[in-house]
Design brief:
elongated, Heat Shock Protein 90, Beta-Lactamase, 5-stranded antiparallel beta sheet, 45% helix, alpha+beta, 3 domains
Length: 502
Amino acid sequence: MKHLDLSGDLALGIVRAFDASPNPYVLLTPDLRFAGMNQAYLDVVGRAREELVDRPIFDIFDGGGSSEKAVENARQLRESLERVFTSGQRDHLALIHYPIGMIGADGVVRIEDRWWSATNTPVRNAAGEVVYVLQHTTDVTELELLRRRVTSDADRSAVNAILSGNVMARAEHVQKDNRRLHAERNRLMDLFIQAPGFVAVLTGPDHVFQMHNTACGQMVGGRPILGLPLAQAVPELAGQGFISLLDEVRTTGEAYEGHRVPVQLVHTSGGKLETVYVDFVFQPLCDEDEVVAGVFVQGHDVTDAVRADERQRLMIDELNHRVKNTLATVQSIAMQTARYNPDPVRFAESFQARLMALSHTHDLLTRSHWEGAALFDVLRHETEAHGRRRVALHGPPVELKPASALALGMIFHELATNAAKYGALSVSDGRVAVTWTLDEGSLSLVWRETGGPSASRPERRGFGSRLIERSVRHDLAGEIETDYGQSGLVASLTIPAESGRA
């Protein structure tokens, strides 16, 4: 027999006994190739040893061709052999219809109808691994055909009694039930493996991974954990309380349920610890004596939901803060506008215009979920009412922080309002150019009016001037210079880049 690691007189005796046995035996490798067979097997299948060794069994015996029945025959035999390699347990085929090709005297291969009874037994190496399957197969074709030929009930009973037909019939039923149960087990196993949450079965006092699904393997970065104690398979869990919880479930026999529990895990080989949040249940598994033999672990990764809730709470807190600040700003605008505009009509006009300026910038920030706003968009919103041809904007793209966007929006609203009342935008030929530059340390903006009346420094500082100075110095931590010349007002603002940029 090829592939067997045997030596010495004992090994030789075993080989000779195997080959001399009147019962057909064949030895198959994990990839279902012939490793060896005895003479009785060769006689039953009508083949020579050199025709079979190292050849795949289903290349030689395919179940009778390509028909649906033949495919089913081959499937039953293949599943039985694979179950032995997978489970390490013996598997029986009490009765299987499996035609084979027999070589006639003329050398032509003809398909002969055959019925077989087979037992597939695992053969292990020194390490306990299943390395071969030993198949003991018996050709029961004549018995099956004789049973089918009997017609009368009396004769059938007699034949069944003689040929143990009742035993064979019961064996057939058992085999069908086994196939059905195996199919159901496979379906349940598929559901287990494909479950979206992580699932595992831990057995023994050391919580050894008896089985787990794909999601569980992914949780620990695809590490080989099957057959290992939890502390060895996932060492980072030590000291996080989960092993003591499993011990408690085994001791008390009571389930434990956790919600949004943080756990430190390594998701990739050689990676760093990451915090994930899980909902989970530890359910005790009892044996036939009602003794807790293991723990069924089931749960879900809820990290995304926890982080979303945290973001929502943060946004609510931030919104409350912004509402308070906005109300304080509105209150200040109202008080200062009233102080410099005792006439109710003028107060209403000025107050409404400033609220609209604040509202425009709020709209821009809302579109970006209050992450910031583009400087160009802020300037366009505050000057668009005076005509795009009359106000030219030029500078590189700059994203502003929310607070900076609000402050600059109010500043340029005041400058535009002042230009419309007294400066370049108060006459048809007047123009305004707003330019800005950005370097590593600061953002520089210049408001330049041309074509309008000459500018002169006001005799008293109004609310607009105070608002501009306060916004630049206190809200933006910057500086502003104003030049009242013959060609019009020039206002130069410089603010730290880090305080202004988003």
